[in-house]
Design goal:
365 residues; Nucleotidyltransferase, domain 5; Pectate Lyase C-like; 2 domains; 1 helix
Length: 365
């Protein structure tokens, strides 16, 4: 087989509709009974073959590394099994055409690593193969560190819970952003990871919206030393720990999220200050609807709905929690409870008692 065998053929006719927005297309081609993965690039004289081979990851990485390419489309017609990380460089958009077929990743490390700034991933389904990687190298679906201006959108990421926990906050997760700034994760479905659905570590200004993080073995969303992010409209249900967990974070907004049926609390703040937790629905969790934990100061928890949580509605959990405001929440389980210092709890309404409950501290103006 040679390049001449493909010369002038281009991609299959049924992907012609994707020619305009794409610089490179990776697709399958059967030649003499062997399935090849082919990367073709659009040019002035039509499609030009730039690489081919029997290993999809090798061909995809060739496409991603081409100079002056800003868009790489994976045209999956069946599941592709990959055993090497796909590296997305600066300024490149890697995407597929939906969730019918998946990249089945069967190796350690990361299925996709974003290695440059201003990059985007969208419309991909990734499945971590049962048992992928070895102890200490269990994979993530998507990983980025030290980058800026990234976007992950409309991806379905399925982890592997058949193996043991590697003991790292940044392995066995759906998406890991480590020291990433001014980036976003939107409208992804992330499930069945051995650690967290989404984890942000030492990140600044990373909005998360419209994601569904269900059935992960720890937190749905875990934020560690994160500031200036907006979390809105996410659904975190049925996770083994909390729905949303914020550790040592400040000046974040958690609004309009749904946390239902998690083993821990719906939303848990720990060592975190100056955060705004508003208009979330936290129900049927094994802990509290919202829990404000050790050394968390000056957070505002207002306008939320809690119901059916085993431990109670809202809890300020420690004397070293100072100056928190718990106001105007609807609390089906009864009054918020307070072990903090100078907590103000006011205007919280219990429908079952048809009464405002649990006033603590000065009334608001």
């Amino acid at each position: 087989m040679s390049l001449q065998d493909f010369r002038g053929q281009g991609p299959p006719a049924d992907i012609g509709t994707f020619q305009l927005p794409c610089s490179v297309i990776v697709f399958q081609h059967v030649f003499s009974g062997t399935t090849y993965f082919c990367a073709v690039r659009s040019g002035e004289r039509g499609w030009v073959l730039v690489d081919y081979g029997t290993n999809p990851a090798t061909v995809c990485n060739s496409a991603l590394s081409l100079a002056n390419v800003h868009d790489v489309l994976l045209s999956l017609r069946e599941d592709w099994t990959t055993t090497a990380t796909l590296s997305v460089p600066a300024g490149v958009h890697l995407h597929s055409v939906g969730w019918k077929y998946s990249l089945n990743y069967n190796a350690g490390g990361n299925c996709i690593e974003i290695t440059g700034d201003d990059a985007k991933i969208s419309d991909l389904k990734i499945v971590i193969t049962a048992g992928a990687g070895g102890a200490g190298t269990r994979p993530n679906c998507v990983y980025a560190t030290g980058r800026t201006n990234l976007e992950v959108r409309s991806c379905w990421l399925v982890g592997d819970t058949t193996v043991g926990d590697d003991g790292s906050e940044t392995r066995q997760c759906g998406i890991v952003f480590d020291t990433v700034t001014y980036s976003s994760i939107h409208e992804c479905r992330i499930e069945s990871n051995m650690r967290h659905g989404i984890v942000l570590v030492s990140c600044l200004d990373n909005p998360l919206s419209g994601n569904i993080c269900d059935g992960n073995a720890r937190h749905g969303i875990s934020l560690i030393v994160v500031s200036g992010s907006t979390l809105s409209g996410n659904t975190c249900n049925g996770n083994t720990w909390s729905g949303i967990y914020l550790y040592a974070g400040s000046d974040n907004i958690l609004s309009g999220n749904i946390c239902d049926g998690n083993t821990g609390s719906g939303i848990n703040l720990d060592l975190s200050a100056g955060n705004n937790v508003s208009h979330n629905t936290c129900k049927n969790n094994g802990g509290y609807g919202v829990r404000v934990d050790a050394d968390s100061d000056y957070n505002k928890v207002h306008g939320n709905y809690t119901g059916g949580n085993t431990s109670g509605s809202i809890r300020v959990n420690s004397v070293d929690c100072d100056g928190n405001q718990i106001e105007w929440n609807t609390v089906e389980e009864g009054a918020p409870s307070d072990a903090g210092t100078t907590t103000r709890s006011y205007g919280n309404y219990d429908p079952s008692a048809n009464a405002f409950v649990g006033d603590v501290g000065a009334a608001p103006f």
